[in-house]
Amino acid sequence: MSSPSSEPQYSFATEEEINSFGKHLYKSKRILALCGAGLSAASGIPTFRGSGALWRGHKAAHLSSIEAFEANPGLVWKYMMDGRHLALQAKPNAGHEALAKLAKKKKKGFVCLTQNIDGLSERAKHPRDRLYSLHGSLLDIKCSNCSCDYYDKENLKDPLTPDLTGDDNLASFSSTATSEPTTSLTSQLFSMTIQESKKPVIPTSKLPHCPKCSSVLRPAVVWFGESLSQTMFDEINAWLDAEKRLDLMMVIGTMAEVYPAARFVQLAKDKGARIAVVNLDGGHLGGIQLRKQDWLFEGDAAEILPVLFEGTLEN
Ligand code: NAD
Ligand code: ZN
């Protein structure tokens, strides 16, 4: 029988790596985190890379665009409803909770940016003034008319309307690996499916309409082709610019490929931050180049974050 102390305690890193990160986190005064879909994977919400790459044969990333919504709002609403339903059924995981606790501990020294639109960080009680949801939230509904200010925050109704029900399981979501779309879809899926699709999944008349101006309502998320909130950027930049240095940047469950994610990683390096990446797939880190002083923790964020933060949260 081998002695338990000879076995590595965790598969995602050596004890030495975990300790060196732990010490750095403990003494860090200014920390930035950038989270992506991988953070919510353990809560059962598919990422764009894996089982959520396709939705009913449509590329999920393509459906998350303003062009898709303009061409076929009923189809995009149905996709968004499935996401909303999944998000409302899901529970925050230990990763969301660990980040929320760290935010309470480090207070103004920690800013967390999330690209997720599932509202799970909020539901894990992450302090709202320490969390920026860069891409909005599926739980918020706004007017599609940009000159109308109608905004319905944290609408938890599910289904949203009798016609807008979300499917009960993950069957609508699939990966390219296990479920190939038809040839026509594979070739030019976006132009074919969205622009030429004659039959919307839900007719526009049955979509929710704005009580103020009667335009079609939409989820308050930032789709491809849309700009992120300038006010939010100004606040993040003000925090970043308040001091010359940043001690640590954590990149969690994202390849940091989508703008402005990649920009933040570079900015953090320029400010002297050490980078810690937590990702299931350390081989595909998009634009992130790790250096000797950085860390890669390869595995599930829900398992890794509580271990990494333990020493800091306890002291
Ligand atoms: P992505 O789907 O492009 O990539 C997910 C990343 O997470 C990959 O690098 C993958 O290796 C990693 N990953 C998967 N499971 C993980 C786990 N258990 N632990 C740690 N890492 C894991 O997601 P993205 O980089 O966030 O960017 C794409 C866009 O997708 C974003 O704009 C985001 O708004 C949107 N999106 C959001 C959700 C959500 O709100 N939960 C889900 C899917 C996509
Ligand atoms: Zn309106």
TrEMBL record:
The active site is at residue 135. Zn(2+) binds at residues 143, 146, 210, 213. Signal peptide: none annotated. The keyword Transferase applies. It comes from Amorphotheca resinae ATCC 22711. Gene3D superfamilies: SIR2/SIRT2 'Small Domain (3.30.1600.10), TPP-binding domain (3.40.50.1220). It holds the Pfam family SIR2. Belongs to the sirtuin family. Class I subfamily. This is Deacetylase sirtuin-type domain-containing protein. The keyword NAD applies. Keywords: Metal-binding, NAD, Transferase, Zinc. InterPro entries: DHS-like_NAD/FAD-binding_dom, NAD-dep_sirtuin_deacylases, Sirtuin, Sirtuin_cat_small_dom_sf, Ssirtuin_cat_dom. Coiled coil: none annotated. One of its GO terms (molecular function) is NAD+ binding. It comes from the Eukaryota. Residues 11-315 form the Deacetylase sirtuin-type domain. Transmembrane segments: none annotated. GO terms for cellular component: nucleus.
